[in-house]
Amino acid sequence: PGCSSLGYGAMEELGPFRVNSDGKTLYRNEYAWNNVANVLFLETPAGVGFSYSNTSSDYSNPGDNNTAEDSYTFLVNWFERFPQYKNRDFFITGESYAGHYVPQLAYTILSKNTSKTIINLKGIAIGNAWIDDNLCTKGMFDFFWTHALNSDETNAAINKYCDFATGQLSTSCDQYQTQGVREYGQIDLYNVYAPLCKSSAPPPPTAGVVSVSINFMLVITSFF
């Protein structure tokens, strides 16, 4: 949570434009999703990117439930402002922590569609879903090892000292996780096949703190 949908999702992944290496100009993304669909990038929760609130307490207590309600309120008002899209098939997609945001927003929409269809939700899709911290952390280090980003010794130690099933992580587990993060170096964590673009060494990682899953998982659910 806290990552800009415009700065990352739109400008680095599936939006109509990408940023050139000069950091000032753009080029068209031939694989943009808007080639086949109308795409709305929503920055959540309030305080992320261009999303804001006039109530200061919203920033100190966002939470998944509040985020789902805020997103629903935004969508209802957006469809009122642009009614030409109101009856079209609607899909929610996301990645990483959207493994929580997407299904909770879908649940909110469906629970409010009981008497009439307010939002014509047809399905959800989640890529690289961060659903369970222990499961996804293990998946990330498995990915590092199977892509030759971690040594056999480090991988064996992580599997030995880290009890991901119960979440009981020892000091040795933290140390070897830190070693695993160090070993992948300056490779882009989100795209290990991307060209290296960092100009300086990254800061030392914090032991036991990992914030992203690369163990790819795509979940698609349809509502008919």
UniProtKB/TrEMBL annotation:
InterPro entries: AB_hydrolase_fold, Peptidase_S10, Ser_caboxypep_ser_AS
Stated name of the protein: Carboxypeptidase
Keywords per UniProt: Carboxypeptidase, Hydrolase, Protease, Secreted
Listed GO CC annotations: extracellular region
Family: Belongs to the peptidase S10 family.
Residues annotated as transmembrane: none
Source species of the chain: Citrus sinensis
Subcellular location: Secreted
Main location: secreted
GO biological process: proteolysis
The EC number(s) this enzyme carries: 3.4.16.-
PANTHER family: CARBOXYPEPTIDASE, SERINE PROTEASE FAMILY S10 SERINE CARBOXYPEPTIDASE
An MF annotation (GO) of this entry: serine-type carboxypeptidase activity
